[in-house]
Amino acid sequence: MRPQVFDRQLEQTISFREVKWEEDVERLHSWHQEEHVIPFWQQNMPLEQYKSHLKSLLADTHQTLWIGEIDGVPMSYWETYWCERDSIGSYYEVEKGDQGIHLLIGKQEYLGQGYALPMLRLLTEHVLNTNGTNRVIAEPDSRNDKMIYIFGKCGYESKGQLSLPDKEARLMICHQSVFQQRWERLLHDTNV
């Protein structure tokens, strides 16, 4: 099922589709070269190396790669993954069914436009509707105050710091009950 909603505040349609190799490899490589992305993703590699990297990500069955779109225009990259099968599971008390989310906004013109929260809300809802998932986790870079704020506003609670191989991160967990309570009115309003 493709997550999609018309957001009344933005007056635009937010949607997600799975990454398609031919359509997205050069786009994703370009986004990883953006100055606002490099410090947090560290994947600003040459195109041929990135192609190999993306092929391995697409072949990995513990995760799904998404393109986030506004009114059908690709503008962000997201990963959802099963924490038990991911290296993150070694760094916190993973529970059966936990899924995680990573994200980046591709081009600078989409930064600061109010897209991150409604997009995160939609994909979090989608993940929480997966059978067996009661928690969604995130581990944003500790330096990324903007994303820590957005995760918190969405309903993710800070659970401390993690020292990961590639970064110092803030562990944030969103429980289904907290998320539903925070967004109940929106989740039941079909015009959102």
TrEMBL record:
Keyword Oxidoreductase (UniProt): no
PANTHER family: LYSINE N-ACYLTRANSFERASE C17G9.06C-RELATED (PTHR31438:SF1)
Sequence ranges assigned to domain N-acetyltransferase in this UniProt record: 14-177
Protein name as annotated: Lysine N-acyltransferase MbtK
Molecular function, one GO term: acyltransferase activity
Pathway note: Siderophore biosynthesis
UniProt entry keywords in alphabetical sequence: Acyltransferase, Antibiotic resistance, Transferase
Function comment: Acyltransferase required for the direct transfer of medium- to long-chain fatty acyl moieties from a carrier protein (MbtL) on to the epsilon-amino group of lysine residue in the mycobactin core.
Keyword S-adenosyl-L-methionine: no
